[in-house]
Amino acid sequence: MILLLAIAALLLAGGVALSYVIGATAVLSFVAADRTMFLAAIPQKIVAHIDNFTLMSMPLFILAGEIMNRSGVTQALLRLAMLMFGGLRGGLGHVNVATSVFFAGISGSAVADAASLSNMLVPQMRKEGYRDTYAAAITAASSVIGPIIPPSIVMIFYGALMGTSVAGLFVAGFLPGLLLAAALMLLNAVYSRREGYASQSTPMSDKRAVIRDALPALLIPVIIIGGIVFGIVTPTEAATLSVFCALIVGRLYGPFDRAGLFAAFRRTAVLSGSIFLILSAVAAFGYLAGLQQLPTRMAEWLIGLGFDGWTYLLLLNVVFLIAGMFLEVPVALALLVPLLAPTAVTMGVDPVHLGIVICLNLTIGMASPPFGACLIIVSTVTGVGYWRLCRAVIPFVLVEIVILLIVTYVPGISMVLPRLFGYAG
């Protein structure tokens, strides 16, 4: 097995696509485990794994996000955030965080939010006297809010893997996401007072127009999440509804022609195809893990080492936080959730609460040194040196880890709304 892992690492280093590496390693693992007789069943297992009604919503939410990102929605939300928080000391830092909260209802992707905010806000923050490393660091840190506040591609992925209610996960993400935003704003207020960062205000005559322009964009997540919470639509139907809303709102905000629509479809196809390829490859690994009873053996081994209940959750935090630094989120979910999450559920952890903890870990990992994907994106777009950015983001990551531990060990934060709306016992 060590030899197989070494070969997989060499293939990845050589630039071979991740889905091919996982698939090839899975097949070779059957040979190494003397289970070659079961290889004929792999196509059936792959089809059964991806033939999931919940997964249908993922490409549709991606498409809705792509359509809105290519229209004027993001600019309208940015102006609204400026109106609400620009007048505070360190206003642009607060606007950065608030815009990530608003963007969460559009893309649900930390990387997309990091790229958008790096391009729109960091240059403006530089002009207003913010240190470039600080502007880039708060942008990378705030981008992790996107996948926590619904709709979230990460939560859909987790729900499909664990058979957990996606609607319950969506509802559970609200309070942790807002708590994370509040903590980042508090840290920004501390820095702003120490560094003397000023406030920015919107002219009085513009305020009504800003609110009017932002309302259509804000109504989209309200309609989608409201429909899911009150049982009017399923998450998959809500994803379809989000595409229609995005098309309508995209036309309201400005020029959105056929070329833009085609680009959105093409980007959606590429992202969705890569995710389903990874899912197919991981299905083979999951099949072998079931044959070898790896989850059961791992649970018995960990309990024997003294990991049980909350101590096991601490172990999961460490594992998934590190995984988020090095792996793409869908890959980390597909590889680790089937292996580690069922053990936590058998120990009494609610699968909805567990999903929020895991998703929060992975997204914080994306903004954590040394190899967080959001750090790479922000550094590339803003031109801030990567290692300078890594040093500057550490205080923000530490605050996010504190919020992670609070959410982990105070499950009521993530479970109060699911219980209120009947998605948890």
Automatic annotation (TrEMBL):
Protein name: TRAP transporter large permease protein
GO molecular function terms attached to this record: transmembrane transporter activity
Alphabetical list of InterPro entries matching this protein: DctM, TRAP_DctM
TM helices/strands, residue ranges: 134-160, 166-190, 210-232, 238-256, 268-290, 310-337, 370-389, 396-417
Keyword hit for Cell membrane: yes
Membrane topology summary: Multi-pass membrane protein
Complex and partners: The complex comprises the extracytoplasmic solute receptor protein and the two transmembrane proteins.
Job description of the protein: Part of the tripartite ATP-independent periplasmic (TRAP) transport system.
UniProt cross-references to NCBIfam families, sorted A to Z: dctM
Chief localization: membrane
Family affiliation: Belongs to the TRAP transporter large permease family.
UniProt keyword annotations, A-Z: Cell inner membrane, Cell membrane, Membrane, Transmembrane, Transmembrane helix, Transport
TRAP C4-dicarboxylate transport system permease DctM subunit domain location: 6-413
Gene Ontology CC annotation, any one: plasma membrane
Subcellular localization, as worded in the UniProt entry: Cell inner membrane
Source species of the chain: Pseudooceanicola pacificus
Keyword Protein transport applies: no
